[in-house]
Amino acid sequence: MKTMKEVPALREFLRMCRDGWEQGWHERNGGNLTYRIKPEELEECRPFFKDAGPWKEMGVTAENMAGEFFITTGSGKFFRNVEDDPEHNIGIVEINGEGSAWRIVWGLEGGAKPTSEFPSHFMNHSVRAAATGGECRVIYHAHPANLIAMTYFVPLTARDFSRILWKSATECPVVFPGGVGVVPWMVPGGAEIALATSELMKSYDAAVWAHHGLFCSGPDFDTTFGLMHTIEKAAQIYVLAMSASGGKLLQTISDDGLRAIARDFGVTIREEFLE
Ligand code: 2HA
Ligand code: ZN
User: Fold this and answer.
1) What CATH number does the domain located at 1-116 have?
2) Angle at 152 between CA 151 and CA 157, to 5 degrees
3) CATH of domain 144-275
4) Cβ neighbour number for residue 254 with a 10 Å cutoff
5) What is the pLDDT of residues 203-259, one digit of tens each?
6) pTM of the prediction?
7) Does the CB atom of residue 31 touch ligand 1 within 6 A?
């Protein structure tokens, strides 16, 4: 490989940024993406590393992320620009031995920093890795409009959101049988929202941020993008159906219908949310 752009993990990262931009989920600098690099991928990246920058404390700590390397979008950077100029818009950071600080080893040229939501991404990586036996590698935050719209008229509970989204399209309970968590409105970018989100991510692989957006996690780019896409599509169908019907839905999928889908597709639906 002659350039970093040829490294498959980086190529997939760039493609996901483009896909998210094309979906309309990343106005201006909206949204952010991080990927925890596999050991064999790290060896492909290392030849392109520069002298490491200084360590920067994050304000959160996760011992199980000590020594890991992440590809991350840059703070204030636009998804729209990532593919054309990866060196200035994304980068790779190394985590220190305490799991409390990062330093830049590639990219983020010109004084750029990892995403403002790096503390949330980092804590989500920590709890999702623990919850999945190390499988989880992608954390993705986007601003999909229909899901955000739902946070203005649906009660802000995991039960309400999960039930509505499951019933908005038949395949939803198969794609996210665990439902979605909901974080009340909070100031973004800091340790407080990072801890609140990661608390939910112990048992959900997706969490709604009220009046802001959605966090999704997964083992690879396809699964994580697909989760964001499926949840937003369900939200779109719900908003369309509510708008077209003046808020009076005539019929929907029954709770026993959800149980039957889960049974036939071999997934465990979060039974506590069913009636
Ligand atoms: O990067 O999406 O949540 C801008 C954001 C912050
Ligand atoms: Zn955001």
Assistant:
1) 3.40.225.10
2) 45
3) 3.40.225.10
4) 12
5) 999 999 999 999 999 999 999 999 999 999 999 999 999 999 999 999 999 999 999
6) 0.98
7) yes
Beta bridge partners of residue 92, listed in sequence order: 71, 106
What six digits make up the tokens of 45? 């990246």
- Residue 256's Cα: distance from chain center in Å? 30
Here the tokens at position 96 are: 């220190």
β-bridge mates for residue 36, sequence order? 70
Cβ neighbours, 10 Å, residue 189: 15
How far is the centre of ligand 1, averaged over its atoms, from the C-alpha of 85 (Å)?
19
The angle at the Cα of 203, spanning 138 to 226, to the nearest 5 degrees, equals 40
Please tell me the number of the ligand nearest to residue 148's CA: 2
User: Which ligand ends up closest to the CA of 33?
Assistant: 1
Domain coordinates in residue numbering, the chain: 1-116, 144-275
Q: Does this chain's domain 1-116 share its CATH topology with 144-275?
A: yes
Verify whether residue 117 is a known catalytic residue. yes
Query: Which three-class secondary structure state does DSSP give residue 129?
Result: helix
Residue 193 CA, ligand 2 centroid: distance in Å: 11
